[in-house]
Amino acid sequence: MRSTLILAALLALAPPPASRADDGRAYVAGGTFLMGTSADEVGRLRSRYQVDFPGVFENEVPAHPVTVSAFLLDRHEVTNERFAEFLAANLEWRREALAAELHNGDYLADWEGERTPAGKARHPVVFVTWHAAQAFCRWSGGRLPTEAEWEFAARAGGDREFPWGDAPPSPERANYHATAVGGTTPVGSFPANELGLHDLGGNVWEFLLDVWRDSYAPEAQIDPLAGGPVDDEGLLDVAGRRAVRGASHGGSVVNLRTRWRDSHVVTNAVAFVGFRCAYPAGHR
Fold first, then answer.
1. Is residue 3 scored above 70 in pLDDT?
2. Region for residue 100 given its phi and psi (left: phi exceeds 0; alpha: psi -120 to 50; beta: otherwise)
3. Nearest 5°: phi and psi at 233?
């Protein structure tokens, strides 16, 4: 219960800019669901997806009851044009201002100085670090989503294998390797799930708030957050790997599953990882 109260406090720290009070956010009603995968399903998944490398699917184990409180979630991945607004208001996050130890040398590598990549204002921002993503979300009045929130929203509170349902992926449903775009697409180019959320499968992987753990705790949980909350003062001290979800334009079918988990180094700015933000339900 203490972690729930701390998480709620973290959400409420900073008011959003007035122009973005509820713009582009979907309401996700709270509820309880069985997060992850049962151990006895691992063999079937290996066979179905023809994936057999060590540890695959085991990081989704065990399936465990999780209760998620109501929250708001960006309908789209954060775009270059939104990130440009953040940079204009927070000069310390511009490429030339960011300390070398806080990125891999490719932070905002596709930008032209302070200008967004040509023709990609509505594409998801990439070549960002986890720190920059969380800083943007805090500036916007929220934070990065937790793994539990992301999975609950991707499954629309149900038991969907993919964000759109149980039907297999196709180029009409998501931007992944079979779509053969070879890069990002403008946000909202593919159908939303039942909650009105776009690109939860494909386009870019999405940074999450949780520290990476290679398995789940088995007990029932309320608003879990691996590693605990990150306060604003300690943001730049975060190191290591954080969870990512959702797959990218280069992802395979199995990566598009709503339960599929992966991780990414916080300072590793690359062309296939972006983010979206979560907000307190009271900001509706």
1. no
2. alpha
3. -70, -30
d(CA 138, CA 12): 10
- Quick check: helix, strand or coil at residue 122? coil
What's residue 23's pLDDT? 73
Place of tokens 């386009």: 203
Name the band, by pLDDT with cuts 50, 70 and 90, for residue 122.
very high
Query: Is the bond preceding residue 224 a cis peptide, omega within 30 degrees?
Result: no
pLDDT tens column, 54-92 = 889 999 999 999 999 999 999 999 999 999 999 999 999
**What is the H or E stretch that residue 150 is in?**
helix 147-154
Residue carrying the six token digits 């409420």: 12
- What structural domains does the chain harbor? 2-283 (3.90.1580.10)
Token pair 């009851």: residue: 65
pLDDT at 283: 56
Q: What is the DSSP letter of 29?
A: -
* Calpha distance 124→143 (Å, rounded): 17
121: left (phi over 0), alpha (psi -120 to 50) or beta: alpha
